[in-house]
């Protein structure tokens, strides 16, 4: 991975896209947004793989992230709350909670930061009916 300086921030060329990184959202994605999206994306991907292996009838899933930062410590990320909204058919919330904990334990990004950032996952299940 190589970052190249540009007028504002840095650019990284990835196989499928170019990503501009800058502390100012006008010029690119902010570094803390990359960190949070990496953690949320990894966690969601592992959670989805677990549900796919169990052949659960998932229609859709969204993940939102709330971030707390500590201004007294270089504005570091101190806490991330991930809320997973899963929509589907015949869903067992208790099983999904177990799957989410399994995802937490197997997400490489969560495991990388678990000693420095508090990560909380919440689950909302929306049951859909067949018509």
From TrEMBL:
<dbReference type="InterPro" id="IPR015946">
    <property type="entry name" value="KH_dom-like_a/b"/>
</dbReference>
<dbReference type="InterPro" id="IPR003718">
    <property type="entry name" value="OsmC/Ohr_fam"/>
</dbReference>
<dbReference type="Pfam" id="PF02566">
    <property type="entry name" value="OsmC"/>
</dbReference>
<protein>
    <submittedName>
        <fullName>Osmotically inducible protein C</fullName>
    </submittedName>
</protein>
<dbReference type="InterPro" id="IPR036102">
    <property type="entry name" value="OsmC/Ohrsf"/>
</dbReference>
């Amino acid at each position: 991975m190589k970052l190249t300086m540009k007028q504002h921030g840095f650019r990284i060329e990835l196989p499928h896209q170019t990503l501009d990184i800058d502390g100012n959202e006008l010029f690119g994605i902010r570094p803390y947004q990359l960190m949070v999206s990496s953690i949320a994306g990894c966690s969601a991907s592992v959670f989805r793989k677990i549900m796919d292996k169990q052949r659960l009838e998932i229609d859709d899933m969204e993940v939102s992230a709330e971030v707390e930062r500590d201004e007294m410590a270089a504005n570091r990320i101190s806490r991330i709350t991930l809320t997973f909204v899963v929509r589907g058919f015949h869903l067992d919330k208790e099983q999904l909670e177990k799957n989410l904990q399994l995802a937490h334990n197997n997400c490489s990004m969560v495991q990388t930061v678990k000693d420095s950032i508090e990560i909380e996952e919440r689950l909302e299940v929306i049951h859909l009916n067949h018509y």
